[in-house]
From TrEMBL, chain A:
<dbReference type="InterPro" id="IPR000515">
    <property type="entry name" value="MetI-like"/>
</dbReference>
<feature type="transmembrane region" description="Helical">
    <location>
        <begin position="198"/>
        <end position="218"/>
    </location>
</feature>
<feature type="transmembrane region" description="Helical">
    <location>
        <begin position="282"/>
        <end position="304"/>
    </location>
</feature>
<feature type="transmembrane region" description="Helical">
    <location>
        <begin position="162"/>
        <end position="186"/>
    </location>
</feature>
<dbReference type="GO" id="GO:0005886">
    <property type="term" value="C:plasma membrane"/>
</dbReference>
<dbReference type="GO" id="GO:0055085">
    <property type="term" value="P:transmembrane transport"/>
</dbReference>
<keyword id="KW-1003">Cell membrane</keyword>
<protein>
    <submittedName>
        <fullName>NitT/TauT family transport system permease protein</fullName>
    </submittedName>
</protein>
<keyword id="KW-0813">Transport</keyword>
From TrEMBL, chain B:
<feature type="domain" description="ABC transmembrane type-1">
    <location>
        <begin position="91"/>
        <end position="262"/>
    </location>
</feature>
<feature type="transmembrane region" description="Helical">
    <location>
        <begin position="50"/>
        <end position="70"/>
    </location>
</feature>
<keyword id="KW-1003">Cell membrane</keyword>
<dbReference type="GO" id="GO:0005886">
    <property type="term" value="C:plasma membrane"/>
</dbReference>
<feature type="transmembrane region" description="Helical">
    <location>
        <begin position="189"/>
        <end position="215"/>
    </location>
</feature>
<dbReference type="Pfam" id="PF00528">
    <property type="entry name" value="BPD_transp_1"/>
</dbReference>
<keyword id="KW-0813">Transport</keyword>
<feature type="transmembrane region" description="Helical">
    <location>
        <begin position="20"/>
        <end position="38"/>
    </location>
</feature>
<dbReference type="InterPro" id="IPR035906">
    <property type="entry name" value="MetI-like_sf"/>
</dbReference>
Length: 360, 274
């Protein structure tokens, strides 16, 4: 947490430029950040006690403990009053349940560890042959608790990889489209006036509403698999890029533009030699927001399409079967994936801006 | 033929954009052009309705289902999105005021908040539905979780956005903390706050609709969309989308209008091209 990629220089899209500068100025903030994170974890642990109290008391009763209040009356009681009724039982049972209402952080971490690194590898060749999956142009064997850890059906890395593929493709499409639209907007008053309001309006359309339609339409044209999800990702990620690039391409001062014109530079040369370099900080700031949005798009796209693999599918399956720990670990896997993507863009940004001499 | 119509409409748009009334007429014309081209494409190529219904079919679906659409709108937008947005923004503003009193908290919360604001918080939807049931309460809770961090981060950053000179002036006047907030920190934070509020408007509607996919009563926009897709009743689906887009744009527009009234002094509101 010592790096704050979301808020690096020029973070003017969605968040404002000064937020980025402010955060950057506070780089030596490991102490306060750790304190806040520790505080959040403490609240989480405390909240788990009343949230899971009903189940703890029921479990204890099954195990032979007796309570003054009958099961029927307990059903109407809130979590806090149950904790007051049987504090010892509630505390003892809060962190070890199989399907808690609120799993404790260490349970989630354990599940993530188990479904990332500690998957079984004791299967014969027959099981290896049984289930196969095509991805990234390779055949992966997929079977529960089997084979190499990464390719097991429970593996979070497999699910994250399946979600990342449409994320990256959609991000690429969205960014290119965004830059192209921004170039058009800066160069043509007609496009500025007519496209910009509709770009804003397009973001008020709930993406999930369109997701099933895009799948249906593309299916009927014969396109399946990666591309429909990637288009939903692109839909979410193009907007921050348009807004940021439109701002960035207009960043050169009037004096700079006049100088280019006195040299008789054409519009294309001004774009290539002045506007594009000047817009680099804005571009990277919006790319970071765009890539996070693309991941949300890819996850959301899995929900209505009946996907069985991927982080969104893990969320959906977890909610169907009440597997709370699975939901939380999928959620954190998504969070880590988002952080890694943003950090990767931040790394590229530092390199490129450093080469260009724009680094602050 | 489609290309010809497109060229003609674009020409009209170019003509309009050069005039003084082009500011508002150009986007309207652009939208109308899109609709006309959509309708023509569907008619000329005989695109089946289950793939892409024509705008006129969608319009017919809207006018034939006004009571249903209204009930869905109330359930999802008014009960879910709007109440969640109000609660989430109010909670974020109050938290920001508390955090602003302590430099230590501010340094800790800003990076963590920035990190959390970028996370796919829609993923908490199944958890909230599990905790709070299928009613609108769970949708409002998802919306609260989604809008909280963007508003919090923007407000905290905005409250800190005062010049040392201005703070010194306040100290010279002997201003109390309350007065300093009222006359210095709050006004300078307003543009930031509205930035957060505007981001939150679009998030709110998305959150409310997404949450309905994880379980809802038999009313609501998300519920209607998923069931009508299952029945291949696409005009009705598009009708819901149109209502959602309209509601979202209106919501955004209202917040932007309030911002214009309150932040008239800010450079970004004083007109002229950026």
């Amino acid at each position: 947490m010592t790096d704050h990629p979301i808020s690096a220089p020029g973070a003017g899209i969605g968040r404002s430029l000064r937020v980025g500068l402010l955060v950057r100025r506070m780089m030596g903030t490991a102490g306060p950040v750790l304190a806040v994170v520790a505080g959040l974890l403490a609240i989480w642990y405390l909240a788990a006690i009343p949230m899971n109290a009903a189940q703890s008391v029921t479990d204890a009763e099954r195990a032979g403990a007796a309570f003054d209040v009958s099961a029927a009356e307990r059903r109407d009681m809130g979590g806090l009053s149950l904790v007051a009724l049987a504090p010892g039982t509630a505390l003892a049972g809060a962190y070890g349940q199989e399907r808690p209402r609120l799993p404790a952080p260490h349970q989630v971490a354990g599940e993530m560890w188990a479904s990332t690194f500690a998957l079984g590898a004791d299967c014969g060749p027959a099981e290896r042959e049984r289930d196969r999956l095509e991805l990234f142009g390779r055949t992966w064997a997929v079977h529960e608790d089997c084979l190499a850890p990464v390719t097991s059906r429970r593996s979070l890395i497999l699910h994250a990889g399946l979600t990342l593929a449409p994320t990256l493709l959609g991000f690429a499409i969205g960014s290119l489209l965004g830059v192209a639209l921004a170039v058009g907007i800066v160069h043509s008053r007609v496009m500025d006036l007519s496209v910009m309001p509709w770009a804003i309006a397009s973001q008020t359309i709930p993406i999930l509403a369109i997701a099933p339609m895009i799948i249906v339409v593309m299916n009927s044209v014969g396109i399946q698999g990666l591309l429909p999800k990637a288009i939903i990702s692109a839909y979410l990620s193009f907007f921050p890029v348009v807004v940021g690039m439109a701002k960035g391409l207009r960043a050169p001062s009037a004096a700079d533009l006049d100088l280019m014109r006195t040299w008789g530079a054409s519009g294309a040369r001004i774009l290539w030699h002045l506007r594009l370099p000047a817009s680099a900080p804005y571009l990277f700031a919006s790319l970071k927001i765009g890539v996070a949005a693309a991941l949300v798009g890819a996850i959301v796209a899995e929900l209505p399409t009946g996907a069985v693999r991927g982080l969104g599918a893990r969320l959906l399956a977890g909610s169907y079967y009440g597997q709370t720990i699975q939901i939380w670990s999928a959620l954190f896997a998504a969070a880590i994936a988002a952080a890694l993507l943003v950090a990767a863009i931040g790394g590229i940004e530092r390199g490129v801006l450093g080469r260009m001499g724009l680094r602050r | 033929m489609i290309l010809g119509v497109w060229a003609a409409l674009w020409g009209a748009n170019v003509w309009v954009a050069g005039r003084s009334f082009g500011r508002w007429l150009a986007p309207v014309l652009f939208g109308a052009a899109l609709l006309i081209l959509w309708e023509m494409t569907v008619r000329l190529f005989g695109v089946p309705q289950v793939i892409l219904p024509a705008p006129t079919a969608i319009g017919a679906a809207i006018s034939a289902n006004v009571p249903t659409l209204w009930a869905d709108f109330v359930q999802t937008f008014v009960k879910g999105a709007l109440s969640g947005w109000a609660i989430g923004c109010a909670a974020a503003l109050l938290t920001a005021l508390v955090i602003d009193r302590s430099g230590f908290l501010r340094r800790g919360v800003l990076p963590v908040g920035n990190f959390l604001a970028a996370l796919p918080i829609v993923g908490t939807a199944p958890i909230f539905v599990m905790w709070l049931g299928f009613g609108w309460e769970s949708k409002a809770a998802v919306v609260v979780a989604m809008v909280f961090f963007p508003v919090l981060v923007n407000t905290v950053a905005g409250l800190a956005d005062t010049q040392p000179m201005q703070r010194d002036l306040m100290a010279t006047y002997g201003a109390s903390p309350g007065q300093r907030l009222r006359y210095l920190a709050a006004p300078s934070a307003l543009p930031f706050v509205f930035n957060g509020l505007k981001i939150a408007t679009t998030l709110a509607l998305i959150g409310a609709i997404v949450a309905e996919f994880f379980g809802s009563p038999t009313v609501g926009m998300g519920f209607r969309i998923s069931t009508e897709v299952g029945r291949l009743n696409l005009p009705m689906v598009w009708a819901e989308i149109a209502v959602a887009a309209l509601a979202g744009s209106a919501f955004y527009g209202i917040v932007a209008l309030i911002e214009k009234r309150l932040c008239f002094w800010h450079p970004s509101q004083r007109g002229g091209r950026p």
